[in-house]
Amino acid sequence: MRVTAHDVALAAGVSRSAVSRAFSPEASIESRKRAHILAVAESLGYRPNLIARGLTGRGSGLIAVVVGNVSSPYEAWFLDVLAEAIRAEGLLPLLLPVSPGQELEPALDHALAYQVDGAVIAAGSVSRKLAERCSAMGAPVVVVGRVIEDGADSVCCDNRAGMALVVERLVAAGRRRVAWIGGYADTFSNIERLEGLTTGLSAAGLKLVDSRRGNYSVEGGLAQALTLLTGPEPVDAIVCGNDAMAIGALSAAQRLGRRVPGELSVTGFDDIPAASWEAYSLTTVRNPVETTVREALALLSARIAGEDGPPQVVRLAPELKLRRTL
Fold first, then answer.
1. HTH lacI-type domain location, by residue (predicted)?
2. How does the average pLDDT of the chain come out, rounded?
């Protein structure tokens, strides 16, 4: 049976309200009495009810974290860094994974029932509709990976600038027959990265020879790259919308005996930890996760503290990480 605050009060010989004050840093209570109550609570295995605390208006200490497919390398990496940073602030993350096509409303309604203090929405790989629904949830919200104009505070890598860096190096390497493997068509990151790629190629007098959709997965990148490399149009570079698809494209090139980078260049986006592994040594655009998390939590903390004003947009500068595949 779960230990309650009433149990702690009886064991400590104090009132129920004294137990509540002992677990509230801002509450007035004599220091030795607080220490005694906390020691009794620890011995009983008691943990305060964060939901009940939220209902009193003192804040639950919970931060909702809405992410896409948590099995994907980038989302898993982002979630790990974000969760650690939230815990370092003395708060707890409440995870709400939402896969593409999944209904978000039930998950958000569930989060609101927990009286969350705020939310971080990793929305680069979810649709605009889902991201906008998140921003209307009532608690302070910061959207990561997408910009919702006049809708919510946002932190996002400059996707177009990142792709401009990729095109510059591809052109310098003599690549002229460039193909694209993107993600879901209506996602923010896919739209901006494809725009950056096509704009950069156009400025160099080039255009895409083919465009495919690989759903951001290694398997999707592999399947689409096999199609590209066995098709009628010769390809000397494959630009991928994220690193997972680029790793799949490298597997396709190896399966077909295509030398990388001798015959073919392959690039990704995000610079997940696996991108630097010797087996891949992937040239990619660094999407700075640590900086993203720091900026997002700074914006969220300010809103939770009551800061007003129009939505803030933080655009982070990308960095090209040159490795063996280009």
1. 3-57
2. 86
Is the domain spanning 62-157+288-318 CATH 3.40.50.2300? The answer is yes
Strand partners, 143: 121, 154
Q: How many CB atoms lie under 10 A from the CB of residue 152?
A: 26
Query: Token digits for 261?
Result: 């980078």
Sequence-distant (≥ 6) Cβ neighbours of residue 148 within 8 angstroms: 123, 128, 131, 132, 135, 154, 311
- Residue 270 CA to residue 184 CA, distance in Å, equals 16
Domain boundaries, the chain: 5-48, 62-157+288-318, 159-286
Is residue 254 within 8 A of residue 219, CB to CB? The reply is no
Return the number of other C-beta atoms located less than 10 Å from residue 71's C-beta: 10
- Give 61's pLDDT tier (boundaries 50, 70, 90): confident
Encoded amino acid at 75, one letter: E
Q: Is 204 helix (H, G, I), strand (E, B) or coil?
A: coil
Question: CA-based Rg of the chain, rounded to a whole angstrom?
Answer: 24
| pLDDT for residue 57 is more than 50 | no
Q: In what order do the strands lie in the sheet with 153-157?
A: 92-97, 62-67, 118-122, 141-144, 153-157, 313-316
Question: Minimal CA–CA distance to 312: which of 149, 145, 187, 189?
Answer: 149
Alpha carbon 287 to its chain's center = 10
Q: What's the predicted TM-score (pTM) here? A: 0.78
> HEC states along 218-277?
HHHHHHHHHHHHCCCCCCCEEEECCHHHHHHHHHHHHHCCCCCCCCCEEEEEECCHHHHC
Q: CA distances (Å), 325 to each of 43, 211, 237, 250, 279, in order?
A: 57, 20, 10, 9, 11
- The top-level CATH class assigned to 159-286 is alpha beta
Contact criterion met (CB below 8 Å) for 274 and 247:
yes
CA-based end-to-end distance of the chain: 60
Count of residues making up the chain: 326
183-to-126, 167, 245, 246 alpha-carbon distances in Å: 11, 19, 9, 12
Going 49 to 52 to 54 to 59, the CA torsion angle's sign is negative
